[in-house]
Specification:
Blueprint (H helix, E strand, L loop, with lengths): L1 H4 L7 H30 L2 E5 L9 E3 L12 E4 L12 E4 L4 E13 L6 E9 L5 E3 L2 E4 L16 E8 L3 E10 L2 E4 L12 E8 L4 E6 L2 E7 H4 L7 E3 L14 E3 L15 E3 L11 H4 L6 E3 L11 E3 L11 E3 L15 E10 L4 E9 L2 H54 L1
């Protein structure tokens, strides 16, 4: 504008540079907007469930333990404390020591090949869980929903599993060629009574991330953190430790000599403070002997002191060779068919609430649900404090009533006397 306004020749170097710079900025902006638009168009939500009043029309219950009467019934509840009485309703386990099996179909079958897969949901162990699962499973199109059971083939299993203090982990299991592979890292779950948001991200570069409440808890490589593929290298079967290999770091000092009289010191001696009982009868009891006690002068079995072994060669390391059975697989992350999501858990103490299940390739969509959970968390904490205060007051009132009844009963007994 200055070049034109001041009638400066557009042939001048300064004006040419200015014009080129502005054109580049405009092109960059247009390109960025184009990329954003493409991302918005291609981002896809495969499944979204917040459990409204019509949830039963979308979910299929299965009863694999019907013969043993061990299947639990699902409830629809926000629990004892919540932020929103309607929005916070989810699937709740309602009976102790039962199996829970249920699934829902995606609007369409999909493959995650070439894109990110995000599995996200909230779970609330309101019952202060002692032992039970809280994970989801993603299934291929082959699932028979009505006959779903713990042996039904799945692609991915993700979520917390808690039983006492020994089992407290977040499962991330990938199924390949009919075998389920557990993550080798320990991922600790949340175990309190509040709602927590779990997210698994599986990326097309064979990496993964696990988040809890928006905080990254673990990440890494599918090849390194699971034993899906054979190892890249194995011990050379033709290599053996040489027979003359010396791997003893220390040896007894050949010049160290046992002191004279070492073996003459007994391990035990008669107790010098012991006395023969007054009623001891040598004719009946035999000759009295003082009981034995550890000898404070005894030094144990003599051993020569250890010195560095001059012939020591170090620990023998078995040489490795390339594993002929290893074949790299750039598609470990990918599955041809995702069609269902399901819950298949056992719980000793019921009360767990599953909610806000999202399966997508859009981080933006997942973050939007995360922000909604953050609002829920604040309101839930306030409601929890109020709930606990009500419970305290109720317990106090019941205690006072019981004490009053006991006092009245005592007075009645006195009157009768």
């Amino acid at each position: 504008e200055m070049c034109i306004r001041d009638r400066v020749s557009t042939q001048s170097t300064g004006c040419l540079l200015l014009i080129v710079e502005r054109q580049m900025r405009a092109s960059t902006l247009i390109f960025a907007l184009l990329i954003s638009s493409i991302a918005l168009v291609t981002a896809e939500v495969y499944f979204a469930e917040t459990f409204d009043k019509n949830w039963e029309s979308r979910w299929v219950k299965a009863y694999p333990k019907k013969a043993e009467n061990a299947d639990g019934e699902w409830g629809w509840s926000a629990g004892k404390f919540y932020n929103d009485a309607v929005k916070d309703k989810g699937l709740q386990t309602t009976q102790d020591a039962k199996f829970y099996t249920i699934s829902a179909e995606f609007p369409k079958e999909f493959s995650n090949k070439g894109k990110e897969l995000i599995v996200q949901y909230t779970i609330k162990f309101e019952q202060n869980i002692d032992c039970g699962g809280g994970y989801l499973k993603l299934y291929p199109a082959s699932l028979d929903q009505e006959n779903m059971n713990s042996e039904s083939e799945y692609n991915i299993m993700f979520g917390p599993d808690i039983c006492g203090s020994s089992t407290r982990k977040v499962h991330v299991i990938f199924s390949h060629n009919g075998k389920n592979h557990l993550v080798k890292k320990e991922i600790r779950p949340e175990t309190d009574e509040f709602t927590h948001l779990y997210r698994l991200v599986v990326k097309p570069d064979n990496t993964y991330e696990v988040y809890i409440d928006g905080t990254k808890k673990e990440s890494g490589s599918l090849e390194e953190d699971w034993d899906i593929l054979p190892p890249k290298q194995i011990k050379d079967p033709n290599a053996h430790k040489p027979s003359d290999w010396v791997d003893e770091k220390e040896i007894p000092d050949p010049e160290d000599k046992k002191p004279e009289g070492w073996d003459d010191i007994p391990a035990e001696i008669p107790d010098p403070e012991a006395t023969k009982p007054d009623d001891w009868d040598e004719d009946l009891d035999g000759e009295w002997e003082a009981p034995q006690i550890p000898n404070p002068e005894y030094k144990g079995v003599w051993k020569a002191k250890q010195i560095p072994n001059p012939a020591y060669k170090g620990e023998w390391v078995h040489p490795l060779i390339d594993n002929p059975d290893y074949q790299p697989n750039s598609n470990l992350y990918a599955y041809d068919s995702f069609k269902y999501v399901g819950i298949d858990v056992w719980q000793v103490k019921s009360g767990t609430i599953f909610d806000n299940i999202l399966v997508t390739d859009s981080e933006k969509e997942a973050d939007k649900w995360l922000k909604e959970w953050e609002v829920q968390k604040e309101g839930e904490k306030k409601a929890y404090d109020e709930h606990k205060e009500e419970e305290r007051k109720k317990a106090e009132a019941e205690k006072e009533t019981k004490e009053a009844d006991e006092e009245a009963e005592t007075e009645d007994d006195k009157d009768e006397l």
